[in-house]
């Protein structure tokens, strides 16, 4: 009997040890994946920089470096909001429509070639208010009516585009006439373009929001399991609406800065931004299913795509081929960056 008890105790001890070894192995693999994904992006960036610097000697110049920062600033701002939405397990396709509506509202309420009123700082408040309304509307329809975010935000894209088109009307292009703002986005301050300083501020605030606030923690929790969040009594409804509102505000800010950069108002001021933002978030390692990822990873994704586009132009690739080359490299980059999470990738809700 004693031998039997000892034998059972020994088996239990072996079983417990095996479980601990297995858990330790899982933790090590998780840590490795967490390091491998950003490292793979850094390797891809280094490869692109090396290839393009060989193809064109102007690529590694200081002026082109500043061009890359200016080109990446607006996508970075918009991508912070897109990252928060995808961390929920949702998606926001309204980016370009919100940018157009906000940009047109802002320029028509600022000093422009059409005349009218010049509200100064209030033009920023009202224009961002338009973006906020569109974002809250998307969040409420998605959350309260349980319409998939893909459908809601796709529709809101066209709502924003429609607002921008109506504001544009049939008159001449509204040109920015505020001399203090003309060229402001690309003006260099302490070695960096002004628009990039704004992007750095937004990135910093986004990281603080995600890591140190209740909204950020609940956002990650919803992405992992909304059922558990609701059963714990956490404010899932309010947080989801708030995240869509924040994303729209950042898209609106991007729309205003893009309008300043162009010096003219246009309903399509955000054209092409969505194609950079969503792939950048995914390439950066944020899971489409939500719950895992981060803003710093998205920053790497934005830089990868911006450097790719910049390098293709400097390398003399014809515009008719640039989209095809960009798309092919984009698919390869996504596969390379997301390979370690392929078994866990989910379709966005």
From TrEMBL:
Q: Where are the transmembrane segments?
A: 39-56, 68-91, 122-142, 149-168, 188-210, 241-262, 268-288, 295-314, 320-339
The places in or outside the cell where this protein is found are:
Cell membrane
Q: Does the keyword Secreted apply?
A: no
Report the PANTHER family cross-referenced here. ABC TRANSPORTER PERMEASE PROTEIN YPHD-RELATED (PTHR32196:SF21), ABC TRANSPORTER PERMEASE PROTEIN YPHD-RELATED-RELATED (PTHR32196)
Q: What is this protein called?
A: ABC transporter permease
- Listed GO MF terms: transmembrane transporter activity
Q: Please, which domain of life does this record's source organism belong to?
A: Bacteria
Q: Which GO terms describe its cellular component?
A: plasma membrane
Major localisation: membrane
This protein's membrane topology, according to the annotation, is: Multi-pass membrane protein
Keyword Endoplasmic reticulum on this protein? no
Name the keywords, alphabetized.
Cell inner membrane, Cell membrane, Membrane, Transmembrane, Transmembrane helix, Transport
């Amino acid at each position: 009997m004693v031998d039997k008890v000892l034998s059972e105790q020994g088996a239990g001890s072996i079983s417990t040890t095996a479980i601990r070894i297995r858990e330790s192995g899982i933790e090590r693999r998780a840590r490795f994946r967490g390091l491998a994904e950003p490292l793979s992006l850094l390797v891809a960036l280094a490869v692109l920089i090396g290839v393009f610097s060989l193809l064109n000697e102007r690529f590694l110049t200081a002026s082109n470096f500043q061009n890359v920062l200016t080109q990446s600033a607006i996508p970075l701002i918009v991508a912070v909001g897109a990252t928060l939405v995808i961390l929920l397990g949702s998606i926001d396709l309204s980016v370009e429509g919100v940018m157009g509506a906000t940009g047109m509202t802002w320029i028509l309420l600022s000093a422009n070639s059409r005349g009218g009123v010049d509200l100064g700082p209030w033009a920023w408040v009202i224009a961002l208010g338009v973006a906020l309304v569109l974002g809250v509307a998307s969040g409420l329809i998605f959350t309260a009516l349980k319409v998939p975010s893909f459908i809601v935000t796709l529709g809101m894209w066209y709502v924003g585009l429609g607002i921008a088109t109506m504001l544009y009307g049939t008159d001449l292009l509204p040109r920015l006439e505020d001399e203090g703002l003309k060229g402001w986005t690309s003006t260099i301050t302490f070695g960096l373009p002004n628009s990039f300083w704004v992007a750095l501020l937004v990135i910093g605030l986004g990281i603080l929001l995600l890591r140190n606030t209740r909204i950020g923690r609940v956002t990650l929790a919803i992405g992992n399991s909304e059922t558990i969040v609701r059963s714990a009594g956490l404010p899932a409804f309010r947080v989801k609406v708030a995240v869509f509102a924040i994303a729209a505000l950042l898209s609106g800010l991007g729309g205003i800065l893009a309008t300043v950069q162009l010096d003219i108002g246009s309903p399509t001021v955000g054209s092409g931004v969505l194609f950079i933002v969503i792939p950048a978030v995914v390439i950066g390692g944020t899971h489409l299913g939500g719950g895992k990822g981060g803003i710093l990873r998205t920053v790497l994704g934005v830089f990868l795509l911006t450097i790719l586009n910049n390098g293709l132009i400097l390398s003399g690739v014809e515009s008719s081929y640039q989209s095809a080359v960009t798309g092919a490299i984009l698919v390869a980059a996504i596969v390379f960056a997301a390979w370690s999470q392929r078994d866990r990738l989910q379709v966005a809700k």
